[in-house]
């Protein structure tokens, strides 16, 4: 989604704003803009469709400089990605605003403002905000009061940065429903949609809370809560370092993040398993009491995180012996589900800011679910703050839009949950011990899976000129096939679908011919023989097979088949390891196709709008 940055300092803030935008570019990237109050006390603005580097060039060209400014990278929701729709929006040369979120009553406000004589220069929902703030300033309110009044009239979600020539050293920020952090340094302050944007300038952050408004100057800041009371918010020290969001030797963040998986998983397990057991305290001091009551689990999530949830369902029922359902959050939130007593709602999310998942959680609470657990990668995100229990995935910042390390660490976290719930529902100590041992070996198994990189690179040539691909799996590896298909389609733009292999003969088999590559995951488990028959059905019809199989498995798929072996792994953790070759396959196909791998078209990293 959109990202915002703002700064007030005793130096030129334009380089800080531009660098911040680059670091936020993964959230949305169809246009970008920035505005400062320059030495002459005038709002000076640069806006450009396309990437932040185009904006950077424009800012240099027009000599944009100032000690206070706001900036924005946009992912279009209302209005096309044109220069006039790019933020900041300005009203009568006096107020400038950047906004992340969606204003739901913008049409109504627009009509009202048109009658009041305001002129609109964009098709965005944001422009009503800047007019509304101006309107209140015009009636005698200062910039802080005007923002306070204006946000009361807004319906929907917003994170705002506001500057005005009437108060040249004052940056006002407000948030409701969209994330916003306040960065603190020595007589300079910053705002941004996330911490990663500001890491080069500060490590100290305040995570503004729902409804907060902050009044920021070089000599300090004041925060007001949603009722207008002055409040103190805790200052957090971030452990992120600037390198964590640098590319280093890799050509793409996605590749870097694929290779970071052994380390990410080690971090996810760190301090959470010991002597063959999962340490329940990892879920927080109240976890044991909550888990004792849980009789069923409902998982909600979106996209890749939803696939992790689907694997979780297989595990929760087969290992932990606990009923589990899973669904996409955008459906759950409007479905009016029946709530069973003592059901735990589990949300899975990399960002913790996905609008549908947050809304799903709030709906679950309203419906009376027992308790909630968030499995999430971003500390202090909205989802984390709204949940009773939290298990952080500790994958580190994930910049590539296509989720990789966040997914596999979600699976690891999910397995920890399975084990703590399982021991309350008849799972033996031995099962727990065995799975914990498998988890401990995962980083090494993943290192081995990464060794397939070169072979996969060679195979990817076969996919690059195809229009369709089919992915097959069974059991807990069916969601892995779904995830493989999602990765391929989102970064290579090749249409890819996944099927539970047993479902093939009920329709999709009709598609099989030599033009459709069929990718299958074949761990050594009790479904193997059935999967092999499904693969025979494909090769008998001229389909070309690409099978990722456990080393101990002998798969025959016809002369044209490619069988790639993955280090022998226990069935329980196989979905985690089999994810790796599918990520690499998508990456190499996209590389050949020359797509924008880290920022695929039309997509955003964190979907903070509905
Ligand atoms: C795909 C992908 C998306 C996200 C989805 C949910 O590679 O990254 O499908 O998984 O938008 O995002 P989070 O996990 O942040 O809630």
Strand order of the largest sheet: 3-2-4-1-10-9-11-15
**Global structural class:** alpha/beta
DSSP strand tally: 27
**Structural shape:** globular
Give start-end ranges of low-pLDDT stretches: none
Radius of gyration: 25 Å
- Mean pLDDT level: 92
User: Helical stretch count?
Assistant: 18
Distance between the termini: 11 Å
> Which percent band covers the strand fraction?
15-25%
Percent of residues in helices comes to 25-40%
Descriptive report:
The chain has 18 helices and 27 strands. The protein is globular. The strands form 5 sheets. An 8-stranded antiparallel beta sheet has the order 3-2-4-1-10-9-11-15, covered by helices on one side. A 7-stranded antiparallel beta sheet has the order 5-6-7-8-12-13-14. The mean pLDDT is about 90. The termini are close together. A hairpin with a 2-residue loop joins strand 7 and strand 8 (about 165-175). About 55% of the residues are buried. It is of the alpha/beta class. Helix content is about 35%, strand content about 25%. Fructose -6-phosphate binds near residues 351, 354, 402 and 486.
């Amino acid at each position: 989604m959109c990202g915002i940055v703002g700064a007030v300092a005793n130096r030129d803030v334009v380089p800080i704003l531009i660098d911040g935008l680059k670091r936020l570019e993964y959230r949305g990237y169809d246009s970008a803009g920035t505005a400062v109050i320059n030495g002459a006390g005038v709002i000076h603005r640069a806006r450009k469709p396309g990437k932040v580097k185009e904006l950077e060039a424009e800012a240099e060209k027009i000599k944009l400089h100032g000690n206070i400014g706001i900036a924005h990278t946009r992912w279009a929701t209302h209005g096309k990605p044109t220069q006039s729709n790019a933020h900041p929006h300005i009203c009568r040369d006096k107020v400038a605003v950047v906004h992340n979120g969606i204003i739901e009553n913008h049409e109504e406000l627009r009509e009202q403002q048109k009658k009041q004589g305001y002129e609109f220069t964009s098709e965005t929902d944001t422009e009503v905000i800047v007019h509304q703030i101006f309107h209140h300033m015009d009636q005698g309110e200062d910039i802080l009061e005007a923002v306070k009044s204006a946000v009361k009239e807004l319906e929907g979600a917003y994170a705002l940065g506001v500057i005005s020539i009437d108060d040249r050293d004052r940056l006002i920020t407000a948030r409701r429903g969209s994330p916003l952090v306040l960065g603190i340094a020595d007589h300079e302050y910053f705002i941004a949609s996330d911490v990663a944007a500001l890491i080069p300038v500060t490590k100290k952050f305040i995570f503004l809370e729902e409804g907060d408004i902050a009044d920021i100057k070089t000599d300090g800041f004041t925060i007001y809560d949603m009722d207008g009371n002055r409040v103190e918010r805790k200052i957090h020290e971030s452990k992120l370092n600037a390198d964590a969001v640098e590319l280093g030797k890799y050509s793409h963040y996605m590749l870097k993040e694929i290779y970071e998986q052994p380390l990410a998983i080690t971090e996810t397990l760190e301090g959470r398993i010991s002597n063959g057991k999962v340490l329940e305290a990892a879920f927080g001091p109240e976890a044991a009491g909550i888990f004792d009551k849980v009789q069923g689990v409902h998982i909600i999530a979106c996209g890749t995180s939803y696939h992790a949830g689907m694997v979780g369902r297989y595990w929760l029922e087969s290992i932990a012996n606990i009923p589990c359902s899973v669904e996409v959050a955008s459906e759950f939130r409007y479905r009016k589900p029946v709530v069973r007593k003592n059901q735990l709602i589990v949300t899975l999310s990399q960002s913790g800011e996905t609008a549908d998942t947050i809304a799903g959680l709030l709906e679950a609470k309203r419906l009376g679910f027992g308790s909630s657990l968030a499995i999430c990668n971003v500390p202090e995100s909205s989802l984390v703050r709204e949940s009773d229990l939290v298990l952080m995935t500790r994958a580190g910042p994930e910049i590539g839009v296509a989720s990789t390390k966040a997914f596999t660490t979600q699976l690891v976290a999910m397995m920890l949950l399975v084990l703590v719930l399982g021991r309350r529902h008849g799972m033996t100590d031995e099962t727990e011990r065995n799975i914990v041992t498998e988890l401990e070996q995962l980083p090494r198994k993943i290192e081995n899976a990464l060794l397939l990189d070169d072979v996969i690179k060679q195979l990817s040539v076969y996919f690059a000129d195809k229009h369709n691909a089919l992915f097959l799996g069974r059991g807990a590896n069916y969601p892995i096939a779904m995830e493989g298909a999602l990765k391929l389609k989102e970064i290579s733009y090749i249409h890819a679908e996944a099927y539970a292999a047993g479902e093939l003969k009920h329709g999709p088999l009709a598609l099989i011919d030599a033009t459709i590559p069929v990718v299958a995951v074949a761990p050594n488990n009790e479904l193997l023989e059935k999967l092999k028959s499904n693969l025979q059905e494909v090769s008998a019809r001229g389909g070309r097979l690409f099978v990722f199989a456990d080393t101990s498995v002998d798969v025959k798929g016809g002369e044209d088949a490619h069988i790639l072996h993955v280090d022998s792994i226990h069935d329980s953790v196989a979905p985690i390891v089999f994810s790796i070759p599918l990520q690499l396959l998508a990456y190499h196909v996209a590389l050949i196709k020359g797509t924008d791998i880290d920022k695929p078209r039309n997509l955003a990293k964190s979907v903070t709008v509905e």
